Amino acid sequence: MPLTPLLTPDDLNRFLDTDFPEVHADGRIFTVEAVGPGFATMRFEPLQRHLRPGATVSGPSLFTLADVTAYVALIAHIGPVALAVTTSFTINFLRKPPLGPLLCTCHILKLGKRLAVLDAAISGMGSGELVAHATGTYSIPPK
């Protein structure tokens, strides 16, 4: 059965603004771009502080993008549950990310009552080339 989002990209961006303002401590670098049945997509605008020597986006920045996008995909489908938390997360860095905006699309693989499993793919906006792949599990608090 297809998953139906409960929240729009505007709803999700407002939720991040109000419940997680620290995600925008350096300005708006994460933006929810799209939400659909079983998925969400976010845009990441890396700043100089997100770069490593050799002009590459850092691994911790890519990890954060994947984790935030997975969280957004989850709450888009269960509602604004601030206490849903990451219980495990694995990321594979596939190639050097291009300088510039990155997109992360996250799909919900399983949505249960207490756990959700998600799959995230990060790519460069211009090239569309996959630069990292991640999977994560999130704990959903009881109602």
Automatic annotation (TrEMBL):
Name this protein carries in UniProt: Thioesterase
One Pfam family it belongs to: 4HBT
GO molecular function, one term: thiolester hydrolase activity
Leader sequence residues: none
Native source organism of the sequence: Pararhizobium antarcticum
Every Thioesterase domain range: 56-122
Transmembrane segment boundaries: none
Classification via InterPro entries: HotDog_dom_sf, Thioestr_dom
